[in-house]
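Incident log, support desk, overnight shift.

02:14 A customer reports that sequence design results differ from what the structure should imply. Their input is reproduced verbatim below. On-call engineer (initials T.W.) acknowledged and began investigating.
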């Protein structure tokens, strides 16, 4: 695929043909975010269809984290709109957006370091109406299940600060799982994982996507992008340059040159 084609299709392909029947959960339209003179997000239009894993790739500073912040209400757009299940998110606070079913992780994880693994998960559950509807016993069963899925069962009573790096990454994911959110926004969740942890991580996300969770993930490791993505969106200097299958995006020589820092 040539660059001219991918660029021209960037907005036309907001809903790829093979996903045409899928429900669109999140709709981003002509989104802009300026920081002073810097245009961090520029006219971005894209959809996140239900049950699809979309990877957001692009060089450092492309605007990936900013796009997440605009979706979650941590930043206010300069212009443009974001709709969730048909409802505009304009003016809605981050904690409300989280309650509406959009959960995210941060690059720096933001765990409660002095709390145990179980407490880190329970604090998420306590914020959702699920716990109140289902009762404490059901919540404890769900925690046990999540700990098994993330292989943290034997760390249940350890403090987050005492966990190994990969375990902290899985705890961050466990917190997302506990949120019962429909959309997961994951900011570099797999960076620095060893190969075995990485395989487990991919299997876990695939499993949740199969159950209907929609996932948008910022990822640098192209191996992970290829293994995990149904769809790749390529951002550069705030612009959505292309979106499509990982093969189409990653074999584009122009995009590869941008990705690897050679703009000549
Ligand atoms: N709160 C902010 N204030 C000013 N500039 C910011 C802020 N957040 C991000 N930026 C700038 O916006 C650009 C995009 O940043 P970011 O979204 O973090 O990129 P990425 O996650 O793709 O590496 C960068 O140039 C960054 O320095
Ligand atoms: Mg970032």
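02:41 Re-run completed on a clean worker. Output:
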């Amino acid at each position: 695929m040539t660059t001219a084609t991918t660029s021209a299709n960037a907005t036309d392909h907001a809903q790829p043909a093979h996903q045409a029947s899928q429900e669109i959960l999140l709709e981003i339209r002509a989104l802009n975010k300026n920081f002073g003179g810097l245009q961090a997000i520029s006219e971005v239009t894209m959809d996140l269809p239900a049950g699809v894993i979309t990877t957001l790739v692009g060089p450092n500073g492309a605007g990936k984290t900013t796009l997440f912040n605009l979706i979650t209400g941590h930043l206010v757009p300069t212009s443009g709109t974001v709709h969730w299940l048909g409802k505009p998110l304009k003016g809605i606070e981050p904690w409300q957006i989280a309650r509406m079913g959009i959960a995210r992780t941060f690059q720096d994880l933001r765990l409660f370091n002095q709390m145990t693994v179980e407490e880190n998960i329970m604090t998420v559950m306590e914020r959702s109406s699920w716990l109140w509807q289902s009762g404490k016993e059901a919540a404890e069963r769900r925690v046990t299940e999540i700990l098994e899925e993330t292989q943290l069962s034997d760390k249940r009573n350890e403090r987050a600060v005492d966990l190994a790096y990969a375990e902290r990454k899985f705890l961050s994911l466990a917190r997302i799982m506990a949120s019962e959110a429909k959309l997961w926004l994951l900011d570099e969740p797999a960076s620095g994982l060893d190969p075995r942890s990485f395989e487990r991580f991919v299997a876990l996300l695939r499993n949740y996507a199969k159950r209907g969770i929609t996932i948008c993930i910022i990822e640098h490791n192209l191996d992970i992008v290829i293994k995990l993505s149904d769809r790749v969106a390529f951002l550069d200097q705030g612009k959505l340059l292309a979106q499509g299958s990982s093969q189409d995006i990653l074999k584009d020589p122009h995009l590869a040159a941008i990705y690897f820092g050679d703009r000549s």
